[in-house]
Amino acid sequence: MKMPFITKEQAEEIAGKYPTPFHIYDEKGIRDNMRRVREAFAWNPGFREYFAVKAEPNPAIMQVLMDEGAGFDCSSLTELMLAHAVGDGREEIMFSSNETPAEEYVYADRIGAVINLDDFTHIKYLNNALPKLPETLSLRYNPGGVFTLSNGIMDNPGDAKYGMTKEQLIEGYRLLREQGVKRFGVHAFLASNTVTNEYYPQLAGELFDLAVEVKEKAGVALSFINLSGGVGIPYQPDQEGNDILAIGAGVKKKFEEILVPAGLSDVAIYAEMGRFMTGPYGALVTRAIHEKHIYKEYIGVDACAVNLMRPAMYGAYHHVTVLGKENAPADHVYDVVGSLCENNDKFAIDRKLPQVETGDLIYIHDTGAHGFSMGYSYNGKLKSAELLLHEDGSVEQIRRAETPMDYFSTFDSLPVYKKLADIAAHL
Ligand SMILES: *Cc1c(COP(=O)(O)O)cnc(C)c1O
Fold this sequence. Notes:
Layout: H1 8-17, E1 22-26, H2 27-40, E2 48-52, H3 59-67, E3 71-74, H4 77-87, E4 93-95, H5 102-110, E5 114-117, H6 121-129, E6 136-140, E7 147-148, E8 154-155, H7 166-178, E9 183-187, H8 199-218, E10 224-226, H9 244-259, E11 268-271, H10 275-278, E12 282-293, E13 297-301, H11 310-314, E14 320-322, E15 332-337, E16 346-353, E17 361-364, E18 385-389, E19 395-399, H12 404-408, H13 415-425
Parallel strand pairs: 1-18, 2-3, 2-11, 3-4, 4-5, 5-6, 6-9, 9-10, 10-11, 13-15
Antiparallel strand pairs: 1-12, 7-8, 12-13, 12-17, 14-17, 15-16, 18-19
The structure holds pyridoxal-5'-phosphate.
Residues 52, 54-55, 73, 75, 96, 189, 192, 228-231, 272-276, 369 line the site of pyridoxal-5'-phosphate.
């Protein structure tokens, strides 16, 4: 059974101070998980997890992860700025972007981020963007075809816009070495949200074989191999989660089979996990404010897809708990819906739940990654607050809720902005 990390009593107390809806994050869960990740890869002295900032771009959460030894993986100017500000000069940053504007490469280079080039043509583009190439560069690989694991999980790299072919990659290392680059890495992201201990080891095996080939054909010994993201979490209550210690051991086995005999035992393993690092340690807490009985039974809540887009965007499953009714029989069937004028604004469809009454607090699980951050502002809806539950049980607001004036703030050169400010002041 999936259990919330806060009780109904805690949630009511928090809601008394910070009105619903809000996202709340469990600091202890994040720290303990990051420690397990480091333990899983402790056999590799160069190992580093670069937290994928897009999963949860909040400085307080980033700080917790950095305290535990994480670097940051960024893919845009604002993510780079955040990582640099949080790190205060001590940060380690990977810039795994795509379709990148020249100014972003310039800024990434200026703050010492490692640039991971998505395409062969970006070598020329980078040469034009920077006065001098950095000493370290990474290239992103796409093997094409279909990526399959024995449990059937599959993704389709051949259809993905990311990365370059093997021939381009090998030619790229040759070219960059001629142009004075000294340290090289490779990166690949071949399947998303894999709930199996097999994904990283299989990916690592492919990249280790590639590293041996790169050494033979381009004469370049890679310094790091970046397994990127894709390690998933069990959104469904009957799924068994990944065992990161088993994943680390699986990668180690491939390392010893392939890299060590090839004389490449100094290679550092990097990861860029996002979902696995924060996903289970965040929740969206919202209140049931309406019930509706037509052709189906509906519960209307005060959050909407603006606060959590994954169900609307990909039909993603998020488990729902009615707080205080954790042990009550799930003998009702509801659609739990938000307020957007979009019929896909449904957090749950035909979901078996205990009877929901207006006023109940609804806890939507696993929103700690790609939850708040994926939000948008359709229908003029405002983003919620984000709260951090500390290990001592205290709660800190780490992002305030938006106000109407935040929504209007980019109109500021228009006379109507003043009227809006006046209206907002007298609401
Ligand atoms: C999204 C992304 C990640 C993180 O992926 P998760 O599935 O959240 O672990 C890492 N690296 C890159 C380049 C990404 O685009």
